[in-house]
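so my prof wants the structure for this chain in the tokens format not the other one, which i didnt know existed until like an hour ago. anyway here's the sequence
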Amino acid sequence: MRNKLLIVFLVLIVLGVVIFGFIQFNNKTQESPEPQAEETLIYTKHNIIGTSVEGRDIESYTYGNGENHLLFVGGIHGGYEWNSVLLAYEAIDYLKENITTIPKNITVTIIPSANPDGLYKVINKEGRFTIEDVPQDEGPKGTGRFNAHNVDLNRNFDCKWQAESTWRGNIVNAGTKAFSEPESIAIRDFVQKEKPKAVIFWHSQSNAVYASECHNGILPETLTLMNTYSHASGYKAVSSFDSYEITGDAEGWLASIGIPAITVELSTHETVEWQQNLRGIQSIITHHSQE
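here's what i got, hopefully its the right format
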């Protein structure tokens, strides 16, 4: 008799545990789920957006995933302005290390070298280049300024394009037509696909920030872009380049399709002036994050 009572008692305990568990499970499934902390959508992306005349990759590095896309471009004049490429890679390293500081509504893309064939002309056998490797001024030649077709890429875009253009008063080859070169096509296709809110080109050595314009003058937002970078970096703001006539420049083409663009000219061909340009980069990101 005692054994039967023990068995019944154990069965009742088991049934109680099962019923209790079922009730708890049922209550949990009916409760509204607790709100989860919003995940920050931050990522990096490396793409090959095109290749040069000699088959070298034209790369882009993208950080963040916001709707306001900012584009920075270095090295369109290749080896002649090699420090603009180094500046771009400094910016890439900075963004990679500080990815969590990019605002949620911002995406930043950097194209470090828009003319890799021109850059290759000043790279030594060890894969490095130094100030001593780069002739600082070779007159109209400009070591590495042009691509492998001897075209000045910053005269090959579709704004007032002419087959011959000028650089420091010298005649330069602007290609057989606007966008005749694979490097300028890569930039064009990227812009048309991604539709950036603003584009900043790094050059050297005029020590200034220039606004862009084409047939319809300067876009109002371009002046804001110029003044924002200038104020933060300390480079002089210049609304119009009038030293000599320029046709077919990338910044002018962007103006013609309604995209604000500026040219940031470093003060020398030897330095990246990182702190100045970091302040400029941060100011552009902050400005567009508030839109």
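also thought this was worth mentioning. The radius of gyration is 28 Å.
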